[in-house]
Amino acid sequence: MVDQDRQRTSGFQGSEAMQAAEAVGEDYGKVKGRTQREIVWRRFKRHRLAMISGLVLVLLYAAALATPWIAPYGYADIDYTALDQGPSLKHPMGTDELGRDELTRVIYGGRVSLLLGLGVGVFSTLIGAVVGIISGYYGRFVDTASMGFTDFMLTLPFLPILLVLGSIFNFTAVTITFALVLLLWMTIARLVRGQVLSVRNQEYVQAAKAVGVADFMIMFRHIFPNVVGVMLVQATLVTAEAILIESALSFLGLGIQPPTPSWGNLLEDARTTMTTQWWLTWFPGMMIVITVLCVNFLGDGLRDALDPKAVE
Amino acid sequence: MIAYIIRKVVFSVVVLFLASAVIFALVSLSGDPLSELRNNPNVQQEDIERLTAEYGLDRPMPVQYVIWLGDLLRGDLGVSFKQYAPVSEIIGDRIFPTFLLIGTALIVTTIIAIPFGVYSAIKKYSLLDNTGTFLSFLGFSMPIFWLGLILQLVFGIYLASWAGVRIFYVAGMSSPGGGGLIDLLQHLTLPVIALAVIEVAALSRFQRSAMLDVLSADYLRTARAKGLSQKTVYLKHALRNAMIPSITLLALKVGLVFNGAIITETIFAWPGLGFLLVDSLSKGDYNVARGILIISAALIVFFNLVADLAYSLVDPRVSYD
Known about the structure:
A: mainly alpha, MetI-like fold, 14 helices, 73% helix, disordered N terminus, B: mainly alpha, 12 helices
């Protein structure tokens, strides 16, 4: 098309106006529509707090993975020449009553909290999505049974139950992850189901059914993309919740057991000396707040970016 | 409508029965209630056997459950293995402090969060709204136990040494020998703040988005168009509808706030059910733990039901299919 136009107008090539028009014409065929991914990314970039939070989280997770190499000391290294010291250049977050470096212990504790949060976020979102998609897609008896079970799980008093589980199993990081996944998938299942109900009677799903696409493929290719947004946002919320619950459990002495440090049990240790060794209370707590705040802002940015009702 | 209510009630009862089985089994699995006596060389073997038979611990767990459930339905929660007193008496003393704490926290939450949420919706993206957004993110990113510790440090210790007098107490519900309303308030303030901060953060955001939904509705444009003042439009037309979701959320909260109360009570040594639960689990006082767990499950189920029914009564748009 462009070539034909050029031939037809070749007699006027001298004029500037024509050259300009030509330039526009050349761009015309090249302007391409933005893909869904580009639109989402553009919107996400505009949420400045979410961008900063994402960056902070990347750093925190990098630190969690590289812990043994970046921690200045070992988490159980005892130094009798440096008991109960306040923050200094040598020990930026001070030391505890055994002379262990608090910064090192906070980094190791963060490794537990951050990886556990991510694990719970990913797995409970997957379980919730599977339950929600199957329940919403098949409807009828499957839906009644699985949503009844979901509602039942939602009404269990989950913190008391976790406390009891803690006294049965003597939690480790792995078993807490399991327990939290089992107690946190329900909200995601309900939200995903709602989303599935709103798309399962759309024409493209009907069409896929009509040409004989297998149920599994319909759920995966045609339904799943519709619930990715909800899943991502919920995954951040669950991650934040998991980090908070683990710290509370460890603080109550029923979570991660010493000598493995976690932000919760560091704070439990700090409790007895709270009035004098202020650094042991402030630093681990502030790390929890910063991490959870960043995860929540990230979720907020994702929610805005993935909102189908948002206008450019 | 009546069919809907009946279905909800039946579901709640079934849930509660299932929950009681889960609770009984989990607590039974968490250990042997007589282990302390078994390890005590002064206790005769036959005494242990007598107690085992007396408490029914020699029977299979399902049988124990049925007996426990039968007693429960008659209002008998069994006997404490550690304090040798009826569980209902031990728990009975702790109910009022917990209700006082949760009730005050929810009242404070409502008084602060609802007006604030409404105002932020009306003045969307104003300085106050943006500050509110940031603060509420901070609020629900904060572990409740750490907030409690910081409140103890700042108001209980830093402020006391700076002011020279104790304004707030950081443990218990009343001073030894002391009493009276002022003393109670001095003890109650910090745990209530610890519990309320997170709830205010959540409820004010919730109220804000509910109000925003209503503000864009057509009937509000109609109200403005017929010349009503802004105040009437906001307070009479918008607020009424925007309150519906919050009322439901509050009903749901009554049951769930117990989670936060467990932690808050433990930190502030508040003599309530949460503190007793943590204590009885660590001491292996299983019947007490079971009693508190079943009470909290019943509360959650009951308030879920209330929320469902209230919602359907208040909002004529809800369908009961």
